[in-house]
Amino acid sequence: MLRARATRPARLVVLAMGALLVVGAYLQGPAALSFGLLVTILAAFAWYLVDRGRTEVTRNVAATVFAVVYVPFMAAHLSLVVGRADHYVGALMGYAVLVVVYDTAAYATGATIGRRPIAPQVSPNKSWEGAIGASVACLLAGAFLLPLWDPWTLASGLVLAGATCVVAPLGDLSESMLKRDLAVKDMGSILPGHGGMLDRIDALLFMAPVLYYVLAAFGLVHST
Which domain holds residue 36? Predict the structure, then answer.
């Protein structure tokens, strides 16, 4: 989508750094994330340094780093969970369930009684009523549903649910804002007419780091 708007992120750098971050986080832990970002910045500058047809270097380097941070860097936190949480299956299930509950309840409540849009110029269909209904449903799921399986407890489930109520809509609205800025309907050719694949996982991407840090705060991930 960035290329369609005359921005030229270095595709090979993005793909290579994405693999480095996701695999490296699983094998080496959090240190791989900072190392991956360092290599991303160096590789982005190096790419355009050797590109004789380079134009708008600042814009394209920024787009390259942004593409890496927005998708694989966020997603790599799930690799940290899989590699360092004893009950990573339950952890991932809880994280996914809360995002789905929030999105579903927000849509249902907003479609039924939604009147006041949160950000009408970004996503006019998202309402404050939908957000309130979704938050109530999400907190209930965190309190009563997540503790049904490890590693979640009432406390950790509520903390993750509370974070979901803030971060999940932020991820959704951020992706909608990008689509409007780029003047596109779908973020990619997968799932055309439904906003593209990124539209389906925007909240999940934003929540991935939150999942890891909530687990870390409750001592549910290994440091090494």
Answer: 1-84
